[in-house]
């Protein structure tokens, strides 16, 4: 009960932050680390968070589209990884299904919030600021409730069920889950490249792949090379823009 309440409280606070603050605390890496800190296993929290950050990196809400709820998926997956003691590999397979399931509840909550939006518009037109403030708190309550009704039952009722299910799963299936968990980051990068759809960035993707696969570079090594290339690319791009501006100024001076 205490674990479920603590995790649910953190989930609600992070959900509010994700919709209003945008300081990044609701991102998978930070959220999983916070859950690890609350449950006393920061190492597992960071491990799960790093991988889920890669998986969900290309997922974002664009316009009226509601993406899978990466926060709830991250929190439940991290909690199961720590409490069940089975490690992050098993938990990673839960993140996507939970996030997609939470997406439906997220859409339902946003639909309810349209009532408060129209009420707030009417209150603003009437100059009723007290009612306008209540509308804001009403939308906040809906957001908290839709997070709590998913996270609390999953943590409180689901941990024992998950432990029993894991004990019943054959070793071959567990190995398959570990392998699938390992390829999920590639799926995240694939979704990111699909969203970006910038053709001239594709070579950089293959450069990183070649360094990691054939060059034996670690993630830190690939990151250092990527940052260096980005700085060089940015330097020459700015230099080209400055040269173009100088040439235009010279042509304008000569024409005068």
From TrEMBL:
List the GO cellular component terms.
Answer: plasma membrane
Cell location? Cell membrane
Membrane-crossing segments per the record: 28-52, 137-159, 179-198, 205-233
Q: What are the GO BP annotations of this UniProt entry?
A: phosphoenolpyruvate-dependent sugar phosphotransferase system
Q: How does it sit in the membrane?
A: Multi-pass membrane protein
Keywords attached to this Swiss-Prot or TrEMBL record, sorted alphabetically, are: Cell membrane, Membrane, Phosphotransferase system, Sugar transport, Transmembrane, Transmembrane helix, Transport
Q: Which residues form the signal peptide?
A: none
Name the UniProt record assigns to this protein: PTS system sorbose-specific iic component
Q: What is the lineage of its organism?
A: Bacteria, Bacillati, Bacillota, Erysipelotrichia, Erysipelotrichales
């Amino acid at each position: 009960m205490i674990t479920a309440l603590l995790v649910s409280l953190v989930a609600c606070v992070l959900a509010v932050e994700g919709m209003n603050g945008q300081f990044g605390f609701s991102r998978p890496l930070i959220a999983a680390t916070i859950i690890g800190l609350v449950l006393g296993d920061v190492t597992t929290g960071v491990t799960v968070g790093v991988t889920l950050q890669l998986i969900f990196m290309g997922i974002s809400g664009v316009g009226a589209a509601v993406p899978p709820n990466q926060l709830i998926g991250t929190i439940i997956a991290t909690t199961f990884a720590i409490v069940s003691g089975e490690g992050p590999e098993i938990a990673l397979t839960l993140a996507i299904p939970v996030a997609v399931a939470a997406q439906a509840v997220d859409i339902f909550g946003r639909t309810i919030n349209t009532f408060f939006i129209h009420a707030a518009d009417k209150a603003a037109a009437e100059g009723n600021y007290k009612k306008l403030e209540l509308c804001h708190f009403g939308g906040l309550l809906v957001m908290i409730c839709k997070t709590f009704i998913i996270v609390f039952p999953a943590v409180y009722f689901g941990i024992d069920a998950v432990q029993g299910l894991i004990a019943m799963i054959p070793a071959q299936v567990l190995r398959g889950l570990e392998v699938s968990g390992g390829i999920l980051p590639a799926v995240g990068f694939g979704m990111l490249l699909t969203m970006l759809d910038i053709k001239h960035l594709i070579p950089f993707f293959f450069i990183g792949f070649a360094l990691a696969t054939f060059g034996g570079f670690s993630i830190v090594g690939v990151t250092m090379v990527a940052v260096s290339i980005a700085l060089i690319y940015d330097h020459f791009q700015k230099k080209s823009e400055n040269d173009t501006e100088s040439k235009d100024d010279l042509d304008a001076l000569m024409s005068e």
